[in-house]
Amino acid sequence: MTTVLITGCSSGYGLATANRFLDEGFDVVATMRTPREGIFAPSDRLHLLALDVTDPASIAAAVSAAGPIDVLVNNAGIGAVGAFEATPAATIRELFDTNTFGVMAMTQAVIPQMRKRRAGTIINVTSSVTLGPIPLAAAYTASKAAIEGFTGSLALELGFFGVQAKLVEPGYGPSTQFASNGAERIAGLIPPEYEDFAAPIMSGFGEQGLITTPEDVADTVYRAVLDTSGRLRFPAGADAVALAQAH
User: Is 13 designated active site?
Assistant: First the structure.
């Protein structure tokens, strides 16, 4: 039985992705900072584990408890929008701690077992902000763009051992609790001097009618895991696909 470990499964993309793999018959290790009962239907193929990707001890404990991992989906992430000028250094570090260093730490933790087996797949979930620049997301984009470069290089490095590394790039998803989960983090990041510039941008998110759902991301992650073409990037959602084609 193939085992997939997914980070950030409490809601949004992670929850949908875990359910998709359960539906397809995988053993799923669904991780989140504080495991919550009731968000999944009962299954003897589901294992809930506590995991904070910014904590080395938490990573080591979760990887040990999970047992052999065939697929790692690095989905856990946090967001922030606002003027870069007004973004505190602590907020920038928080973004990188989860979105960049957390992904790298989880990847480093599973590579040894995959390398020894000469098999395994690592999926890193980034964002369509890496496909085309958008304003008011400079720090967030930087944290995700770092993983794009990291994964491209890693795919070549691990390919020698039969291990795959791939990217899934979701588009704009208003249902992922991006804003609500980061409300405290982004408070005050649009100062008065930026209000005239920011207002039409903030109100225009998603107005083009092309948005990404958690199911779009789950489907794309599943497709990326099964893909044998050597493809690196998989945009997820109609808007991300459109951006990728334009890019």
Answer: no
